[in-house]
Design a protein that fits this description.
Elements: E1 3-7, E2 10-12, E3 18-25, E4 34-39, E5 46-51, E6 59-60, E7 68-73, E8 78-83, E9 92-100, E10 103-106, E11 110-114
Parallel strand pairs: 2-11
Antiparallel strand pairs: 1-3, 3-8, 4-5, 4-9, 5-6, 7-8, 9-10, 9-11
């Protein structure tokens, strides 16, 4: 059974940093690309960052390029999102995602609030 558990969200002031982590289980982690998505209220969920199974050729939505860094540890089955220079518009629920056996799997999400 695929499980994704996010952690690390919280309240941070503009310009601050947070590091999100996602612990994965139920599949061979090192064989699958991973992503971080975010969602604000009823808006469509958007993919923030993507990392292939070997960690190279990462990809980011334009609004976070140069500020966010996605990384993975295939030995620990974790994927992380380092978020720097946070802005109020980064406020959202952040979700870990894997496309596995033709299905999207999601964690429950972790709330990031950027506010003074």
């Amino acid at each position: 059974q695929v499980q994704l558990v996010e952690s690390g969200g919280g309240l941070v002031q503009p310009g601050g940093s947070l590091r999100l982590s996602c612990a994965a289980s139920g599949f061979t982690f090192g064989l699958y690309a991973m992503s971080w998505y975010r969602q604000v209220s009823e808006k469509e969920r958007e993919r923030v960052a993507f990392i292939p199974r070997r960690g190279s050729n990462t990809d980011y939505i334009d609004s976070v390029k140069g500020r966010f860094t996605i990384s993975r540890d295939n030995g620990k089955n974790t994927v992380s999102l380092q978020m720097n220079s946070l802005k109020p518009e980064d406020t959202a629920v952040y979700y870990c995602n894997v496309w596995f056996q033709s299905m999207d799997y999601w964690g429950k999400g972790t709330l990031v609030t950027v506010s003074s």
